Amino acid sequence: MSFALLRAMRPKQWVKNLFILAPLVFSKKLFDADASIASAIAFLLFCATSSAVYLLNDIADREKDRAHPQKRFRPIASGELSITAARRAALILLVGALGAAALYAPALALILAGYLTLNFAYTHKLREIPYLDVLCIAGGFELRVLGGAAAADIPASGHLLVATFFLASFLGLGKRMHELLEVSDAERRSVLSRYDRRGLRYALIVFGLVPIAVYLSYTLSAETRALIDSPQLPLTTVFPIFGVARFMMLITSGHEYESPTEAMLHDAPFLLNFVLWAGFMLALLYAF
Question: ∠146-152-154 over CA atoms, to 5°?
Fold first, then answer.
């Protein structure tokens, strides 16, 4: 049962919580021991909370999942993990995460509670409303950034918040487009019948271009210049441009993965682009 519980907690999805570290990195506090420890604690608490959300979602969706060609193998849907055990684990994770956050950083506890409330609304209503379902997912990433900022007592910049919202929305819209184009009727989520391909294509273009524009604005802003005094910084915009273009390709290209976001994490050109961008940014932020 322990392995089934671990699978149901979706540890592969914890990578999303790395957004919590963004305020720490971009404020040049990465080597500040107190701020780094606070960010690490926020990361762990978000991992616990998000795992509890996955458990509760799978309990609510167990009947639908049993009729799905792939989701029927999930631990709760398959019966490998009992509903009682899943509920107990979710309760322990939530009480532990919210309690620890309340003692450590009350603002973080409020953000975790907001994240939990948003996901409850998404599971029981908002995921059936086109576009709003994706915006809810983007809201979860916003709360991650705000949680990291609150825990480490670092202000989250407007550039970071806007770029995060539009980038997360872009990835979510890309997943919906991929499902419309590639996923069979038996595997489609019900909200897809309410999406229009043409409107979704235009939304993808807009939500893909905005993060690039916001990033370029970030590299040129006086606030950023005070942190990074390098004329080469605007040139790093080539990396977000490539990343957005590559993701657009992954939406329509045939691949073995369930979604373009999963394919993105296994795509060598995309990962190389990300590593190069991260290397350049860390060098500009901390080495010069």
Answer: 65
